[in-house]
Write a structure and sequence with these properties.
Layout: E1 7-16, E2 19-20, H1 22-31, E3 36-38, E4 49-51, H2 58-62, H3 64-69, H4 72-87, E5 100-105, H5 111-122, H6 133-137, H7 141-150, E6 156-159, H8 165-178, E7 184-191, H9 196-204, E8 234-241, H10 243-249, E9 255-264, H11 277-290, E10 300-301, H12 308-321, E11 328-329, H13 332-335, H14 342-356, E12 358-359, E13 382-383, E14 388-395, E15 399-407
Domain Ketosynthase family 3 (KS3): 4-407
Keywords: Acyltransferase, Transferase
Pfam family, one: Ketoacyl-synt_C
Amino acid sequence: MTPSRAVAVTGLGLVTPAGFGAAASWARLLDGTSTARTDPRLAGLAVDFSCQAEGFEAAELLGGRLVRRLDRFAQLAVLAAREAVADAGLDPSAWDSARVGVVLGVSANSTLTYETEYARLADGRPDLVSPLMLPRSIPNMAAGEVGLDLGARGPNLVTSTACASGTTALAVACDLLRAGTCDLVLAGGTDCPRAPMVATAFDRLGALSRRRHDPAGASRPFDADRDGFVLGEGAGVLVLERVAHARARGVRPRAYLAGHGSTADAHHFTAPHPGGDGLARAIRVALADAGLAPHDIGHVNAHGTGTRLNDTAEAAALHRVFDRPPPVTSVKGAIGHTMGGAGAIEAAVTVLSLQHGLVPPTANLERPDESLGLDVVAKVPRRLALDAAVSVSSGFGGQNAAVVLTAA
């Protein structure tokens, strides 16, 4: 039965370190192995490794002129959006473009462009600063370029709630559909934080793993030996659609986005609330919005960064909501932390879990932190009969967001 306020998920697009495309990413995530390796962009830094999205040639797929115009975070968004639209069986030349929106989450955005162009200015050569710096660098261009590429002329915006940005984008898109403003929304998130300044800044905060001797083993969500997260790049886009519109097209949804919730910790500018208060409230709000109870949820796709503070706070939040938290996984063990892209990628993976009845394992979980009291899926995928699942995100500034997804 379709939840009364749900919107349909009719298409998925993924560009991640696990693979180019949703099918390739899903297969690698089920394998449960890390993609982290030494990153030439970060050479000479204290943390010189990341998870990199490869396996495609952007210039061939987008064309040389467009590639030169777009920063990496926007390239990833356009490619993921194209796949999502094709997966949904949509023809952009035939849709009512004024009823198609784009909402994407972005956090780190165009740090590579900033570094290159500011260096030219610092060298006393303003004449060498690219005239494309502004259109390449401003975060809204991820959504703007997707709209341009696909001819989507409805609401077009970017959400920025740090590492919860992708999940926040799904919530905003859901509300646009519920309000009747749009028939379709291309919703998700994208980021490319593989830049020296980003890596240095997070390292100075003590947030990154320093396992230079073992990059593949560095991202260890919920493991007793975790020491920080690993930077990753990627984009995830979901086609969200009014249920009646999907039915009229004769399309069977992959899943439903049944509810969402967002809260603020108002606790600390970088650290989460140690008891997980804000995240727990976001999950409860999402459940109420979906008309479901905690016992209806069979799986949690966790934020699971692999930092001491986040994993502890997230576990506390789950214990606040659930008498016994359902099986948990974190894809960040495999693909690292994709910042603004994370929530959308993880929601897409949750949709695939609902469809296939499989939960991907958390990579690098060798010695589970027993103090967390969680049933974390590890080593191999776990087969579960799933009717509903929750995907959650948190970010600096005390941002929390959760979406409830249900089986079609």
